[in-house]
Amino acid sequence: MNVEHVLTTCPYCGTGCNFFLQVVDDRLIGVVPCKTDEISRGQLCIKGYNAHAFVQHPDRLKTPLVREHGELKQTSWEAALDLLAGEIKRIKEKYGPDSIAFLASAKCTNEENYLFQKLARAAVQTNNVDHCARLCHASTVTGLLYSFGSGAMTNTIPEFENADCIFVTGSNTLEAHPIIGARMLKALDRGAKIIVIDPRDTPLSRLAHIKLSQRPGSDIAWINGMIKVIIDEGLVDQDFVKTRTTDFDKLKDVVKDATPEKVESITGIKPAELAEVARVYAKADRAMIAYAMGVTQHSNGTNIVEALANLAMVTGHIGSESNGLNPLRGQCNVQGSCDSGGLPNLFPGYQRVDDEKARAKFEQAWDVKLPAKPGLTLTCAIKEAAVGKLKAMVIFGENIMMSDPDLGHVEDAIKELELLAVIDIFPTETSKFAHIVLPAACYAEKDGTFTNTDRAVRLIRKAVNPPGDAWPDWKIACELGKRLGAKGFDFSSPAEVMAEMATVTPIYGGIDHDRLDREVLRWPCPSKDHKGTRILHTQKFTKGLGTFAPVDHAPPAETPSDEYPFILTTGRNLFQYHTGTMTRRSSKLEREAPEPYVEMNKGDAKRLGISEGDRVSVSSRRGTINLKARVTERIIPGSIFIPFHYAEAAANRLTNAALDPESKIPEFKVCAADVQKG
Ligand SMILES: Nc1nc2c(c(=O)[nH]1)N[C@H]1C(S)=C(S)[C@@H](COP(=O)(O)OP(=O)(O)OC[C@H]3O[C@@H](n4cnc5c(=O)[nH]c(N)nc54)[C@H](O)[C@@H]3O)O[C@H]1N2
Ligand SMILES: Nc1nc2c(c(=O)[nH]1)N[C@H]1C(S)=C(S)[C@@H](COP(=O)(O)OP(=O)(O)OC[C@H]3O[C@@H](n4cnc5c(=O)[nH]c(N)nc54)[C@H](O)[C@@H]3O)O[C@H]1N2
Ligand code: SF4
Ligand SMILES: [Mo]
Question: Considering only CA atoms, which residue is closest to atom 6 of ligand 3?
Fold first, then answer.
């Protein structure tokens, strides 16, 4: 028997660890870490070690399915694709191209996402293409575009190890990005100071030098409070502020009101403790901020991101080795789906669709006239479907009937659609409502690239054949494009797609599969002789001068009331991943975290007569779910936490679909809720 080892990239989080898939006779038998990989250095988290487990699960979709008389029936690719293309053409003719929306996928490759957005733009003439980044770091993209001119991690993962101060907020790093967390622990061993500000205790916060707990939804108040201390105590990096930034006066004007008393009343953080954090961060030689969903998923998420950018700029902790602001991107290829144009206002490489020059370039490259009007975001597409304006959705690799806020509303909306097509590797809560379901090959069954959170473009390699008649998404997109009568969908490999993408995407200009076989390349990598870029904004910001945004605290869209006295916040645990399609089919992961739960503070539980393990019902203005109570001191009084992985008690039945006006990200991290025993 021969065991093959195929080097590839993890299909879970955006850390982008490489590992070897072990293959025997077209069967996956395990995962072996890769010691020479500069990201993972031979380490993996438990999801990585189990990344083979779901691939050959019997539930995999194996044939195209089409709904007939209410039931999904097996059919051929010919028939399913003809039907899908025919329906798209019919709906386009009847209601116009903007009545159709595509969802790209952060679980698919760059090459596939490039084709998905090309399908929308070139084959259907709509910019209605978006993906789960909308639910995730949309506020980072808009916020940092304003502050710096580019919305990605400013540093690389290895640099965490050499920072003197690591400042983490709204990121449960050791559970959600474990191998980045491992770097932070290396820094801790070296003597670095770790600061965590989070409403809950996390595995990292237990090891931190300073842990402060704030009320969910109060971040701008304490960030401005910190900046005020930094100004008042003369800790501003004057030289940096003078030469590299603009609008500092506007910021000064806003933060002068962030007095210790006011900040404490909003956040619950003690003034002396906040001042200490400000001093440690400002005085460090090399300081890196890491943040994630606790910061971004708010109805003022863009402003919170800008507040963090203010903090980094005021102290000059940006633009050099181990100094920077680092949004930890979530999905294995969410950075790449954004890079390759899976966004309604941006072509590949963040070129604006409403910029005439950019559009002319793509029109020439694709030999087709392109729409100028930015398209609908994912969150707005659902609202439009609910009122009958959007008629069709074609969803590559997303499970919106679990991952979007206020699922009751999502369900009503997608039931209105004349066409719902879902392309996935498993049947999902969303595919239950689809008219057409197409079986896709997963990461282990195709070639391509993922771009991880630190902008490194990493190869995935085919290790085994797909199950049954499943096709790689790039092939599905090409065949659909041809059936829609579009030019430019004749590709015979992902490497060819990357070659085209590189010609129109300057930040990927020098990237090709051959180079990636030999070197680690981080964008911007504009030409074949360019080695890629590790640190952003070193001499100047992407936009020139960094801009201070004068942002101030605003309350969340929903605050506790008599009827709904708790603040509900939602998120993740170590073992499960998102809507669970993959992890819940991996027996070792499912064994460790098999059922839904709500974390609540001991004092609150006692008051309500609730003990560890009791069944409780949790309600919001939008719905009720039943699950087990976990009574803990891990979360502050008055707040409760529910992971959103479990369909049997879906947290998104409760969440609020209020959107950040700028980025349209929903407020997953705060809504008002009630808990009842039984
Ligand atoms: N195991 C696992 N890993 C994953 C994922 C997964 O599903 N499972 N998903 C991946 C994806 S796509 C993403 S985006 C990342 C997300 O990674 P994270 O953002 O780290 O994960 P979350 O659990 O959503 O939330 C992070 C923290 O925000 C805190 N928080 C809640 N409310 C607030 C607030 O108002 N302010 C602040 N500052 N913090 C608050 C929570 O207590 C929590 O500790 O994880 C990636 N990695
Ligand atoms: N309450 C609450 N809700 C949240 C969040 C939260 O913190 N709280 N976080 C939000 C965030 S940050 C995110 S990123 C979203 C994630 O939201 P989604 O992206 O909807 O969640 P996933 O479960 O990752 O869905 C990915 C889908 O792709 C499929 N898939 C996997 N590989 C492939 C492939 O190669 N091809 C195809 N075609 N399909 C594939 C999977 O089976 C799965 O159905 O959830 C958001 N929702
Ligand atoms: S840290 Fe993320 S990329 Fe690395 S093994 Fe774990 S899930 Fe995979
Ligand atoms: Mo995410």
Answer: 45
- Give the per-residue pLDDT at 31: 98
Helix ranges, 98-147 (H): 110-118, 138-147
Our answer on whether the CB atom of 456 is closer than 6 Å to any ligand 3 atom is no
Question: Parallel, antiparallel, or unpaired for β 456-460 and 448-451?
Answer: antiparallel
Segments in the chain below pLDDT 50: none
SS3 (DSSP) at 657: strand
Ligand 1 atom, smallest distance to 173 CA? 20
Q: Of the bound ligands, which one is closest to the alpha carbon of residue 577?
A: 1
Angle separating helix axes 110-118 and 473-483, nearest 10 degrees: 20
Pairing status of strand 436-439 against strand 666-667:
unpaired
Residue 574 CA, ligand 3 centroid: distance in Å: 10
Domains of the chain: 3-49 (2.20.25.90), 79-130+332-522 (3.40.50.740), 154-328 (3.40.228.10), 566-677 (2.40.40.20)
For ligand 2, the distance from its centroid to the CA atom of residue 400, given in whole angstroms, is 8
Q: How far is the CA of 334 from the centre of ligand 4 (A)?
A: 8
Q: What's the pTM value of the predicted model, to 2 decimals?
A: 0.97
The pLDDT value given to residue 456: 98
Q: Is 397 in the pocket of ligand 2 (CB under 6 A)?
A: yes
What are 105-127's pLDDT values in tens digits? Answer: 999 999 999 999 999 999 999 99
